[in-house]
Amino acid sequence: LQPVDLEETRLVKLIRNSQEAGNLSEAMHLLQCLVSRGYQPHSVTCTKLIQAFCNAKDVEKAIEVINILESKGQPDIFAYNTMISGFCWVNRIDDAIQLLNRMTARGCSADVITYTIMIRSLCRLGKLDLALKLFDKMLKDNCQPTVLIYGVLIKALMVTGGINEAMKLCNEMLDRRLEPDMYLYNSVIKGICKEGLAEEAFTFLRSSSSKGCHPDI
């Protein structure tokens, strides 16, 4: 066992205490002291500090923390997801995409949380084409999508008139044995009917029922 470095332990504790007390400038100063003394920053400690800065809408300081972590340590998926979420929260989607690319280039693979954050934000900002491309990348990376991701994409497609694509995704979701909530499923049926596609609606209902999903409308 390696001996515990009391100075490092003390600094990490001080960073955590300052962050929890809301004294983020002091926490940042202590992190810089930690690094200047040759210690490797802890991903957990930095992630909490990134989250705190993002909550305070000080994304620039959060960027400083992730940069320190990248230059002196190794960010884990939790640190990256927190920073990506922070970018998306303030609609800096291009920065989020750049960080996603940088993250994967450093050997840290995106997980379902990463994709959920990005796809939801892209759809919210009206960038549906990019969201669908990212969804395709998710599938190619063998990252299993969730009902939430399908739901976000399906609803966005319904809004933009992409009924056929929405039906395709809904069927794909059912093929994966993912069961949508009734609100989502009924919305798809209503959307098909609204477009005057009665035959397609009945076909979709039969297909869905055979897969175990029975809408309540």
Automatic annotation (TrEMBL):
Superkingdom as given in the UniProt entry: Eukaryota
Gene Ontology MF terms: mRNA binding
Start-end of each PPR repeat: 76-110, 111-145, 146-180, 181-215
Alphabetized Gene3D superfamilies for the sequence: Tetratricopeptide repeat domain (1.25.40.10)
Swiss-Prot/TrEMBL keywords: Repeat
Pfam families cross-referenced by the UniProt entry: PPR (PF01535), PPR_1 (PF12854), PPR_2 (PF13041)
Designated name of the protein: Pentatricopeptide repeat-containing protein
Provenance organism: Opuntia streptacantha (Prickly pear cactus)
